[in-house]
Amino acid sequence: MRSHLLNDTTTERYRASVTEGVERVAARIATTSRPFTGVSPDALTPRVEAVDLDTPLHDTGAALDELDELYLRDAVYFHHPRYLAHLNCPVVIPAVLGEAVLTAVNSSLDTWDQSAGGTLIERRLIDWTAERIGLGPAADGVFTSGGTQSNLQALLLAREEAKTDSPARLRILASEVGHFSVQKAAKMLGLGQDAVIVIPTDRDKRMQTVALARELARLDREGLIPMAVVATAGTTDFGSIDPLPQIADLCAQYETWLHVDAAYGCGLLASRTRRDLLDGIERADSVTVDYHKSFFQPVSSSALLVRDAATLRHATYHAEYLNPRRAAMERIPNQVDKSLQTTRRFDALKLWMTLRVMGADAIGDLFDEVCDLAAEGFDLLAADPRFDVVVQPSLSTLVFRYIPAAICDPAAIDRANLYARKALFASGAAAVAGTKVGDRQYLKFTLLNPETTAADIAAVLDLIAGHAEQYLGENLDRAS
Ligand SMILES: *Cc1c(COP(=O)(O)O)cnc(C)c1O
């Protein structure tokens, strides 16, 4: 079936096929009235299982009809204003256009001879991002699959820069609300079980620098090596930004690698009103940015930036068939020399199209809008006796929990909040996230959709309170 290969003889089929798919998605997006239909795994599984993968339909329209049933109809739609759960953003159209282009051309960014201009475009965007951060003239970096991979690579570089033969003595310091990928990375890097030291946070969920200083002094006394401090610029739950200048001072004092995980907070790099929240990030040795969180880009789009390009050599290996040492000497730009991946998508094109069509200010304005909305949401929650809200947001998340008017067992309140989240998701009316604060169960709004209004937030809070009250009403015996 050579007619399915995209080439000079099939461009009409390509055009028609992709257009048909775009039409289906557009029709769905135009008519979704809820972020989710509430379909259960039990209801959906048999429909997916029933497909005979060895019997093709031989018809694009029929395959799309089937896909509509299996996926599009019941998908979770992040563009809906009542999707308030995780760090997923609605996507900007120039980026979706970029995605369509990059996947059809199918460049692979490992080597120049598989990408040409693609490599140069990625490099420009790395330079652009490093400049916005302020990393200085020797900065470099590479696009990655996401924040998890960026953090892993940053810590790999930090481990190599620590220059020790006793990895058992290496320690990473991160706040108690840092991302779990730091723990995963430590494990993958072969560090010991207790390699990650958790630093407590203040009441705003920012790393306590006094505690960090104390730990660094202790490691020094005990002959242990602080391989890296991971400061988070926008924690996943609270959006809190660790005190970067003070942390940078301590890292300078102890000659420790400073990694700033700005997977979420990177949108501030484009903000015209809040860029100062990232002050101090320019002193980092490495920075994680997830454009697929706060730059309104489709998954995947992420990067690792480093202050000193030379540190990327720790990820360099030469293969004769791909990127021989000779090529590096000839100054052929092979991005694989800087990456943990080999074959790699041209994700950078999405950000490129976004900057060329909309510009960075427009992206920053969108992110500012959701941060403003979170401030409004905080006021709503703080004024509402039905809810307890944890911290005033600096970015766009709100962590809160329903509390009944009557005195009630805290464990029952936990269950009521868990129930409310589940019931809300099953109804499809809205999607919210959950998390723990201390031992207690909380709920979370992650606001990344500028189309969401304060009225949406108020309506979802009413729904949550309704479900929680219903739960406590029905379980009063067990609750008291
Ligand atoms: C989301 C997130 C990550 C992980 O990024 P992925 O792109 O999901 O791999 C890391 N750190 C923080 C602070 C995050 O919010």
UniProtKB/TrEMBL annotation:
GO cellular component, one term: cytoplasm
Keywords, alphabetical: Decarboxylase, Lyase, Pyridoxal phosphate
Obligatory cofactor(s): pyridoxal 5'-phosphate
Residues modified to N6-(pyridoxal phosphate)lysine: 293
GO process terms (BP): amino acid metabolic process; carboxylic acid metabolic process
CDD domains, per database record: DOPA_deC_like (cd06450)
Gene3D superfamilies xref list: Aspartate Aminotransferase, domain 1, PLP-dependent transferases, Type I PLP-dependent aspartate aminotransferase-like (Major domain)
Gene Ontology MF annotations: aromatic-L-amino-acid decarboxylase activity; pyridoxal phosphate binding
Pfam families the record matches: Pyridoxal_deC
InterPro entries associated with the record: Aromatic_deC, PyrdxlP-dep_de-COase, PyrdxlP-dep_Trfase, PyrdxlP-dep_Trfase_major, PyrdxlP-dep_Trfase_small
Family that this chain belongs to: Belongs to the group II decarboxylase family.
Protein name in UniProt: Pyridoxal-dependent decarboxylase
Source organism per UniProt: Streptomyces alboflavus
